[in-house]
Amino acid sequence: MSDLDQLTQSLARNLKRWRNERGFTLDALAARAGVSRGMIIQIEQARTNPSVGTTVKLADALGVSITTLLDFEQGPQVRLVPQEQAVRMWSTAQGSHTTLLVGAEARGPLELWAWTLMPGDASASDPHPDGTTELLHVTAGRLTLVVDGVAHPVPAGTSAVFESNVPHIYRNDGEEAVEMTMAVSIPPVR
Q: What's the DSSP call for residue 143?
């Protein structure tokens, strides 16, 4: 199989997969992307190799990268993220910080976070989209989790899960650093 044939097959497979993951009909994807329904059918059946512009429009409409749409891999994929490649997202002068450890796009984005929250520090979050769920596990200290105005004490060794479509705050009211791991599941774009 030539590189072009492999690219055409990969695009066909991935476009159909991501369209189904997002729950889009052919007509819905066509409307979102500004690409004709007929063109999408031809691409999904591997009967055409679209322009880069068309591929970018489809990727944008699906909320994935063009690389994801063109990915040749067919087997299980493992992506290792070394500690030095984890992304520091938030920090304070007192030493509190969050680090995005790893994320995935399957069935909507999924993120894994490492948190350090120093005494007296807090991080407030606006509501996330409906269907977003956060899971956390406190490994040191005592977290005060405030969800929709209600405070919940979460001591070390305790886990919590909540739908985060309401305002929420992570707060350290104690005298020692809070260490926790958090996973965030975000619903697919519809």
A: E
